[in-house]
Amino acid sequence: MSSTDQPADPYKATNKDEPGTEEKIKALGDFIAGSKFGMMTTRIASSGLLVSRCMAVAGQENGGIDLIFHTNTETGKTDDLASDPHVNMSFLNSTGEWGSISGQSEIITERDTVKKYYSPALKAWIGDLGDGVHDGGPDDPRIGVIKVKMVTATYAINRGNIVSRGVEIVSGAVKGDAPKVNKLREISESEVKDWRSKQ
Questions:
Q1: Which residues are bridge partners to 77 per DSSP?
Q2: HSE on the CB side for 129, CA within 13 Å?
Q3: Which of 62, 112, 149, 187 sits a CA distance of 20 to 30 A from 193?
């Protein structure tokens, strides 16, 4: 709070939305499925610097809280995750809706799991080395899966339509009030643990 007893972050105070855990998780899962692409942030072991890469969501598990991504296991991101499994996934769409997921990653090379999520489109990204083994197919040992297990999440989805949000923004600018344009939601670690135990 500020010295005037007003919230120091009026946007958050005005837009914070707290429905039940089930609705929060379902809405986030739907948003991620619609976004399809997100940015995965990892830490480089040698320098400690953060790096982000665009990743396509290959699947969702446990009611949407765990995310699946294809990977070439011979890349920098798998080296990063092997040294530090902490990861952030962020999503943004053209209307300004966004999501940020903090989680723990796991690199899976077990073939049944790889084949479950395999897509022939991977051949374009993995390539065929011409040795009969590294051919970009489901048995190519380079192809693995990254599972990101959610720990916490924060996201914002639109409230109302573009016209009503525009009115709110103009009114807020005139009155000096934060516009109520989004449903700003947080999913806590305890909520994730409770949800996971019920799946």
A1: none
A2: 8
A3: 112
Query: Per DSSP, what are the bridge partners of residue 144?
Result: 71
Longest dimension (CA), the chain: 71
Helix (H, G, I), strand (E, B) or coil at 45: coil
> Across the strands, what pairs with 28?
none
Sequence-distant contacts of 6-12: CB under 8 A, at least 24 apart:
10/177, 10/178, 11/178, 11/184, 12/184
pLDDT tens for each residue of 8-23: 777 677 778 788 999 9
Q: What number of helices (H) and strands (E) belong to the chain? A: 7, 7
* Nearest-angstrom CA–CA distance, 1 and 9: 8
Q: How far apart are the first and last CA of the chain?
A: 38
How is residue 13 written in tokens? 């105070």
CA distances 24 to 96, 154, 162, 166, 167, Å, are: 18, 10, 22, 25, 26
In this prediction the pTM is 0.83
Determine the 3-state secondary structure of 131 from DSSP.
Answer: coil
| Strand, helix or coil for residue 176 | coil
Taking the C-alpha atoms of residue 87 and residue 150, their distance in angstroms, rounded to an integer, is 9
pLDDT digits (tens, 9 = 90+) for 166-193: 545 545 554 555 556 688 999 999 999 9
Is residue 79 classed as helix, strand or coil in its secondary structure? Answer: helix
